[in-house]
Amino acid sequence: MTGVLRRANIVASATVALLGAAAVIGAASYGYVDDEGLVDAGFLPALCGAVVFVLALVDLVHQIRRRPEIETLAEEVSDSILESAPATTDRVQTSPELDIFGRDQRARNRQLVLVIAALLAAILLVPLIGLLLALASLMIFVSIVVEHRRILSTVIITAVTVALFHVVFRVFLGVPLPTGLLGVL
């Protein structure tokens, strides 16, 4: 990375951090919570601004602490590896019909149709099993059937996601979510 590009990255990260801080400060005028202790209009902008601020600060520190000589060495090593790689590994890079996962256009279209069908099925399941269970079933289907992910990690990630949705929307924000005929979640 050149010195000019490095300085531009530092300036960009600092600018984004300042924008995040400005969002937090600006949201204070709307209030974070109301008199009854419920979330007020400024809460979400402040939360988003705080996340942007923290992430931009992390990136800023990373940009400042980055050592250019290590990047140059890493580029030299990766270039030498790519030059000595057999020609068969270039198939994905030179074949325009394959993406980085080795899927052709038919496979991508098939996956898109599966995801759209699963989304429609999840929407239709909301009145029966509720929003959280419908979203969980959608996540599991897309992860396992479409993306061929491992079952255990998919179930764990889905359970954590549903729990977070429940805590954020039901417990913290007090937003009623559709529970469906089953009324489970």
Short description:
It is built from 7 helices and no strands. It is mainly alpha-helical and 185 residues long.
Task: Describe this structure as you would to a colleague.
The protein is mainly alpha-helical and 185 residues long. The chain folds into two domains: 3-85; 105-172, no CATH class. It contains seven helices and no strands. It is flat, with a radius of gyration of 23 Å. The relative contact order is 0.08.
List the helices and strands and how they pair.
Elements: H1 3-27, H2 43-65, H3 68-84, H4 91-94, H5 105-129, H6 131-146, H7 151-172
Helix pairs in contact: 1-2, 5-6, 6-7
The number of domains: 2
Total DSSP helices = 7
For the sheet with most strands, the description reads: none
Tell me, briefly, the overall form: flat
Percent of residues in helical segments?
over 70%
What is the CA–CA distance across the termini? 50 Å
Binned strand content: under 5%
H/E element string? HHHHHHH
What radius of gyration results from the CA coordinates? 23 Å
Uncertain runs with pLDDT below 50, 5 residues or more? Answer: none
> Which structural class is indicated by helix and strand composition?
mainly alpha
Annotation, overall tally of beta strands = 0
Mean pLDDT: 84
